[in-house]
Every structure is written in C-alpha cells, then in structure tokens.
Design a protein that fits this description.
Structural class: alpha/beta
Strand content: 15-25%
Shape: globular
Largest sheet: 6 strands, mixed
Helix content: 25-40%
Mean pLDDT: 95
Number of strands: 25
Length: 526
C-alpha cells in the first residue's frame, strides 16, 4: 500500500459501516479513505516519510457531518442588516428599529419571530414611527414573508393587491390598502429587489468566512436548497480559483410555478452537468406550499384563519408533470412540503411514477403529517428531510402562532422525526440556515431533545441523530456508495468530537469541542 497523506490515530472511530462498526485509526490518500483499523496496523501499513500523523487523543471520529438543508450563499443576503431574532415583543422591535443601521438609507432586518406581534396582524402601522421615514425590509424568521413600511411600498410602486403565477400575496386591508405584510417569494421580491445588496467581493469573502465557521462546528458538506439568481456557480468557481471551499456543496436550483414547460425543464436538466472541485449541481428544488405562520402551508383542512387550503403551485398537476419529466431524465428532486395536504400530494406524485422513483425524491420540512402517511415514506422510498432546530419557534403549550393556526390536533403531530424513523423512513437532518443556526451540534442536540410543540415523544436516539447528518444524508444525495461512512474507498469527509456525539448528554453535546474537520482529505478545522 502506498504511504498515506494523513493518518489519524488514537480515536474512537464510529464508522457507521456494518462490516466494521468501530476502529482506532484511519488513513487518507488523495482525498479518499484507504485504511481503517487498529493504530498499530494502520501505522505499519500507511506511514511514510511525508505522512502527516495526527493523534486525536481519544476523540470520537465520525463520518463527516452534512447539513442536509442549508442556504449558505443566498443566506448571506438574507441575513444582512439587523438581527431581530432576539426580539420578543413590539416594544423590543421598535427599539431595535430605532437603533438599526441605515444601509444606503434602508433599514434591513432578518429573523423576526411572528410571535413578537403578540397575536396582532403583521402590519406596518406597528413600526412606522420607529423607522422615521426610512424604507424598511424586515424578513420574518420563516424566510417566506416580510414586513415593509410605507416608504418601501412607495419605492416599489405597490399600491394594492396583485396577482402572481405562484402562491403569493400583498396583504391588504378592507379598503385595499397594503398593510406591508408580503407573503411568499414573488410578493417579497418586489421590494427585496430594491434593497442594497452585498458586493461581489463582500459575498465571496462572506461565503468563505461562513463556510469556515460551519466547518468549525463539524460540518464537511451541505445540501444547498437554491442556486441564487443563477450566479452561484460562477461565485463558487471564483472561490475555488483563489483557494478552496471548506465544505462540499450540493446545489438544487429552483423550479417554480410557470417554469414547467419543456424548454425550462431542459435547462434544469442541463444544469446538472455543472460542477467544481468541491461543489456540484445535484437535483432540483420545488415548493408545494409555504409556511404555517404565513397561512400558505397547504392543509387538508383550513387553519384557524380559514387559510391554507391552496397549493403553492396553482395547478398541482403541473408540479407532478415537472417531477415526472425530471425523474425520467434521472434528476433527483427535493420538494418543500410543510402541510399535510402538500406532503400527501408529493407522495402521490412519486407513487404514480412507480418503482424507478425509489430513493430519488425527498420532502423537505414535513412539519405536520397524519398517521396514515408515515409508512408511505418507506414504502415509496421517499426521503424525509427535516430541520429539528425549527421546533424552537413553537411552544409546548401550543400558545405560539404556528400551533394556534393549526389547532391542537395537528400541532400534536409536529416534526415527527422519530415516528418517521420508526416507520422505516430515511431521515436526513439539517438546519435550514439562516432560518436556524448552522451549528451542526445544535441540529444533533434538538434532534435528540426537540423543543416546543414537538417536545413530547419525538426524540431521536443519539445514533439516529448522527445517521441523519451522515449515512442518511448521503442516501438523500444519492452518495451512499462514496459518503456517509468510514470505510476504504469512501471520501475522506471526517469529523472528530472531543465527546462521543452518540452517548454524550444533550447539554454536553451543545458545547462539545470539535477537534478536527476534514472535507475530501483536506483539514478545514483543527
């Protein structure tokens, strides 16, 4: 055997390889794992004069963690301006807006919790005085809605309701005047297009800094659920021209309502050819609905405001046709589906394709799902992709906006991660950054100790949580033969924790030091 580039010894290796579940040492050559075994054996067979020997001092080495749902490029834009995530009521919101920086005259904020409005409708009159006439764009935490004020509405020429090709709304009062509440992407885009954006250099520097910070939490890769405005491949290529991407990125461009004719679908199929050293396009992202708090989750029965009975695609069959065409071309899909009707429609769509669709399609979020749909995930080979940190926006007593809209019955089946695993589903886990923090330890922690409405009986075991960010994440990307376990021939994507993430208590896990992160054989954090 040729000498390795790197040999990691002194570890408790959780391989997730059924053929050899545990080991003490791993050797890496050319970005690939070439040996797994005992310290003495790997040292004897793989050490050479130029090999870097790293003693992990008893750390637990696992397959590299992958965030199965993230927005690291688009998120840089989404998370600009004032962080409003700590705001808990209207007084705090007004104080934050008075003190907020003005970016070229604009007040820009993100992470605003719906619960901060205390049950009142989201309306610009609640914040106009605090803004002092400056135009404002305040993104709510769900990423699917925003609050803008009168100056921003005027700048965008919005004077009343509009009709969109996708499910979006400019909320208006009884006299047809915009309240400033913009729901879903098309409506928000009318104003967000005017908001000052980071420069190309700022985006590039911000992306590299963010990915380095992500690597420091143990992440080696991310499934990126967007492709920005189409310029992301150029941005990633520029980063790789100058250096390296700290994380391996798998991109899924969006297919939105109206983009379902053959020419546009052919373009999405062609995009699958794009790749760099540490990134590739690998799938297409759909939206079957919006969010519960925004009233746009597609539900089988209306929410408490009489909303939620319509799909994001005005013609759900057009969505199903697009998925069929992409599937026939071998393209994987990921569909945002939060409400029970949305989840059912995606499952029905995959079932109609037949056996060839197994393990090629996934559903994102799945915030509420009835008993009769759980077993269908495993039966149809549909991957469940969920974000445990989202449970932190709800409350166990159902007094939060999410739970109140759904009612106790549907809120009682919130984020059924454990139920899906017990039903045999593949379950990939992620953060949905910047909707929730990217720290991989927080994803593992909340998977084991879900919060709020999901806190009763929804906990994963430590091993299940780890699998969700390793072996099951690899299955979700179709990479199970090269990623998600520590075995010869697999990519050298590795994460080392000072504590065992499977057996450490949840409180310990939250602060567990990450000793080393390696992506494709390259150390990205030590």
């Amino acid at each position: 055997m040729p000498a390795a580039d790197t040999v990691l010894t002194g570890a408790r290796v959780r391989t997730l390889d059924p053929g050899r579940p545990q080991a003490r040492a791993v050797a890496v050559l050319g970005g690939e794992i070439v040996a797994v075994g005992e310290d003495s054996d790997v040292r004897r067979d793989c050490l050479g004069p130029d090999t870097e020997l790293i003693d992990l001092g008893g750390a637990t080495l696992t397959p590299g963690l992958t965030d199965a749902h993230s927005h690291p490029v688009w998120g840089i834009e989404m998370a600009t301006g004032t962080d409003l995530s700590a705001v808990r009521d209207l007084d705090q919101l007004r104080a934050a807006l008075r003190a907020a920086d003005r970016a070229k005259g604009w007040v820009v904020g993100h992470g605003l919790d719906h619960n901060a409005f205390g049950g009142r409708p989201v309306d610009r009159v609640l914040v106009e005085e605090a803004l002092g006439g400056a135009p404002a764009f305040l993104r709510l935490y769900d990423g699917h809605s925003a609050l803008v004020n009168g100056a921003a509405l005027a700048a965008a020429g919005i004077t009343g309701p509009r009709t969109f090709a996708q499910r979006s709304e400019i909320v208006c009062d009884s006299e047809g005047r915009p309240t400033g509440h913009l729901i879903e992407h098309a409506a928000m885009g009318l104003v967000s297009a005017l908001v000052p954006k980071p420069s190309s250099a700022e985006r590039r520097a911000g992306l590299v800094g963010l990915l380095n910070d992500m690597a420091a939490t143990g992440l080696t890769g991310a499934h990126v659920m967007d492709m920005g405005d189409g310029d992301v491949p150029a941005l990633l290529s520029a980063v790789e021209y100058e250096g390296h991407l700290p994380l391996r990125l798998n991109l899924a461009p969006w297919c939105m309502p109206g983009a379902d004719d053959d020419d546009e679908l052919d373009e999405l199929i062609e995009l699958q050819r794009l790749m760099g050293r540490n990134w590739q396009v690998g799938g297409v992202k759909f939206f079957m609905d919006g969010t519960v708090e925004g009233g746009t989750a597609w539900l089988e029965h209306a929410d408490c405001h009489g909303q939620g009975t319509e799909a994001f695609w005005p013609d759900p069959e057009a969505y199903a046709r697009a998925v069929r065409i992409l599937d026939a071309a071998g393209v994987r899909t990921a569909t945002h589906a939060i409400g029970d009707a949305a989840v059912r429609h995606v499952l029905d769509t995959v079932e109609a394709i037949g056996v060839r669709a197994r393990m090629r399609h996934r559903i994102e979020h799945i915030e509420t799902v009835p008993d009769d749909q759980l077993k269908r995930f495993a039966e149809l080979g549909v991957i469940a992709s969920m974000q445990p940190p989202h449970t932190g926006y709800t409350r166990a007593d159902h007094t939060d906006e999410w739970s109140k809209r759904l009612g106790d019955d549907r809120a009682g089946r919130a984020w059924r991660c454990r139920d899906l695993r017990d039903a045999g589903a593949v379950l990939a886990l992620g953060s949905d950054w910047p909707i929730a923090h990217y720290d991989a330890r927080q994803v593992l922690l909340t998977a084991r100790s879900p919060l709020g409405a999901a806190s009763a009986g929804r906990a994963l075991t430590g091993l299940m949580a780890l699998e969700g960010m390793t072996s099951h994440a690899a299955l979700a990307a179709g990479e199970e033969r090269v990623a998600g376990r520590i075995a010869p021939g697999f990519r050298a994507d590795l994460t080392a924790f000072a504590l065992d993430p499977v057996t450490a208590g949840p409180d310990e896990l939250a602060e567990a030091p990450v000793v080393l992160t390696m992506s494709g054989g390259r150390i990205t954090h030590r």
